[in-house]
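Something for you to look into today, if you have time. Just paste the record in under my message, thanks.
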Amino acid sequence: MIASSRPVPLLVVAVQGRSSFFFGLSEGIHVSQPSKIFLSHEQQIDLLQSRGMHIEDEVRARQVLERVNYYRLSGYWYSYRELNPNNGQRLDTFVDGVSFEEVLSLYKFDERLRVGVFTCLIPIELAIRSMLGYELGRIDPLIHLKPELLGSPARESGPANQPSATYRKWKHLYDKEFSRSREDFVIHHKKKYSGQLPIWAAVEVIDWGALSYLYQLSPIDVRDSIAARIRLTAAQLGSWLKALNIVRNYSAHHARMFNRVYALKPKLPTAQDVPELVSAAKALNRTFGQLTLIQYILTELHIGDTTVLPTVLTTYPHSKVLPLSHMGVPVGWNRLPLWIH
């Protein structure tokens, strides 16, 4: 599908009886063309070739386009399009030497990256669930239902001590997940304990986003205790959980990851406190910075497989246009302590 949203002038026509009189183009009156123009797979291939992409095997290219959307692949060949020297905007034509196979190799790398990231985030998510459920449960089994026992962010300021908007939002998310859960342990608690899950069970029905909220709502000593296990402060770990929630969503929903710019920049400890993270400081909004956070947590907590992400990075396809540094990866990355495998 090829986008074409340029408005075109409306032709003003006067009709009198059986005759039509063309008055010309109306100034200021526009009608939009259809947002998409359908192209067959053959036409898509022709279009790419007309713009300078080398396609050696058209049969294979068609097979790829039949299972991978043209629009999805366009996100990978976007950076191969020439730049307008006057305004820096991307042109429709490709730089010399770009091939369909090179773009496909980049797509396959990104596919491996998404799988690797998701694989590595699973043990991290489970560890946070376990630690948070345990530390909060020590205070009160139903602390998540008692904002007065949680940290100050769970309550409005003032003598009324009412639940804060943040807590109410979290509680809404929790109630929603709880009500639609069909897990055996949830059904058991609904029957035997009036539907009230203890916190160590409650953390198992919420997603990463709600888990991140719950961490922010927890008493400061709970947050400090968990963060200290990976040599972070409570504020730092809180920012990491938010950032990695976005990364997780990208990987889970098959979004492009390799050259994405990440809006949230997590807080880092000083180089003196945690020198292992120095390499991530200049790349926090790039893929390598986010991967470093994951690699660091796995290493500190001794969980998961710390060889997964380094192995994936070594498979980055050779490209003069898009070198590995495009992801924020520094020279000699594989000799850094976190990345040696």
Q: What stands out?
A: Confidence is low (pLDDT under 50) at residues 1-29. The CA atoms of residues 120 and 305 lie 7 Å apart.
